[in-house]
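so i finally got all the pieces together for this one. its two components total, 648 residues if u count the protein bits. some of the lines might not be protein, just check the labels. i wanna see the whole assembly predicted at once instead of chain by chain like last time, that was a mess tbh
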Amino acid sequence: MLNTCLLLLLGFLPGEAESLTAEELVSRHLHAIGGEKQWAAIETMKITGGYESFSNSHPFTIYRKRPDLYRFEHFMIEFDVVCAYDGEKAWWINPMMGEAGQKPGPIFEPQNKITVRESVFDNVLFGYKEKGHSIKLLGLEKLEGEPHYKLEVSIKDGPVETWHINAETFLRTLVITDGYEYGRKASMDVFYGDYRKVNGVMMPFYIEQEWHTRHRVFEIEKIEVNVPVDDKLFVMATE
Amino acid sequence: MKTALVTVCLLMGSMVLAQDAWPQYRGPHRNGVSNTKNILKSWPESGPKQLWKVSIGTGFSSISVMDGMVYTMFADGEREYLGSFDEKTGKENWRLDVGALFKDSFGDGPRSGPVLDGDMVFGLGSNGELHAANRKTGKEIWKLSFPESLNGKVARWGYSSTPLVDGDRIIVETGGVDKRGISALDKKTGKVLWSAYNGETGYASPIVINFKGQKQYVFVTTKQAEPNRAPPQELAGFSTDGKLLWSKPIPGFTVAMPILVDSDKIFVSASNDDGCRLFQLKETDGKYDIEELWASRNMKNHFNSSVVYKGHVFGFSNATLTCLNLETGEKVWTKRGLGKGSLVLVEDRFMVLSDKGRLLMIEASIDGFNQINAWQALEGKSWTEPTVADGKLFLRNLQEMSCIDLRKS
């Protein structure tokens, strides 16, 4: 009853979406993206497509491997850039940072938080309690004309995010989280779209990020799962 | 009759301009609204009628149009130019060297837009050379280097602000820190009439307002920055003789132009999380005050400005086309997918150009995003705001300029 009243107060419109508890919403969402079993069957990913920055699009490749190993290769302005996480530290090769950035080096605090967050292989809501995260249902509102549940997701030792989950598909449309611009925190909007089924799980093939004055778009062409991915890709070279 | 109408010159504000001209960045009133009437309400499925497309050279400069001639600035080799082109064919009439090429990894070339006034045209190169020329012949009348004559400092992204012509003078951000941040010049000679304000070079272009009978020049001024910090800025009003009448610090960093709303309010938008603000200007016994009515993160104009229409602000909040209630600052509707685009208003339509050259005609409506047409007009980075004059739409990307017929046949 309390939940129903809360939803009504927060903009719930009868007939547009079901009245759900936060737990039920999370359960629906995790089911919509394929469920824990299907996700657990994926060990590696190779994601390729176009990455747009400063109104120019260039090819990119992301490698993922359990547990939370990550490498993002892309081109920005006039440089090849690599951002990676080896399981302990985020590092990059980023010539935009000057001469020092031409060699592999650790990403400075707190800019490194972006790469650490991107490295997380699974949806953070799988076993979120055990991981120390918490959730709160904020209500229901329209986003770009469609009803969405708003879910606050407090990441342990991380940001408090607001997830907008489509009330029909139970897939994420928008996550508002923390971004960083040369070390300064800035609210970041991450939009997800063009969901397609890959190896039994739903993945967004369109990801758009906005923060500060920045705008980045991933237009994914191919997601390959369980392909061989060499561990060396994630290790920061020392020479 | 039509020719007679077009050639009738009116005094709009204090500029001498033809009736359906687009004499400067953001149009006749520097607010993104065209005077053109009787445009197409939609175009065929195959796209609008493109009259011409020409390669002109790199630059972000806007396009100005008057009396059958089109003006913009561009780079060729290691130099920047102010150029005139035939409105019917796009053929180059003349070009005038306006200084050394400004190089930048985001795109080389001029940023500021040409300003047309009577028989004259003014063009500010990225390295701070302001040139005045005969509009028909391109013959130089005078030039003034802000770095050399006014201790101006070239900003990180180059001189970008578009000068303002007001009567016999030209008002411009000169960027000299020792009380030569802004200046008034004699438009006929280039002589400095006055300079004021300890400011560095910013990027926003000034507007002229008339508040309670007093003409004022409104600038987003920029001050010297601390290391690794965005420079502090103020919204400031100056009298016609250069006295600072009022100023208000504004957070964030503003590139977009201030917009006058009604006769006493000014809308400004920073490019970052600080968002936008609506201020109200007040005056009591000759003393000015400016009060913030509201602030909102719902509009964050980056390098292109918004348009005010029917009590709402339409513009790109970073990369999201957004309609905002001007009374409250609340978001009314949004549309993604157009990148860091730009828009101008013509009659009841917005001409929207995406940051990669997709042209949309949308209904100017507060009820929602209603796309009438879409067409790939240009390829690649297209950060320059559209121009609408004489029933035609003028677009450019970093390299090319095109003209599209919007007239009803």
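Chain A touches chain B at residues 52, 54-56, 77-78, 144-145, 181-182, 186-187, 191, 208, 210, 212-215, 217 (CB under 8 Å).
The helical segments of chain A are 2-9, 22-32, 35-40, 112-118, 128-131.
anyway lmk what u think
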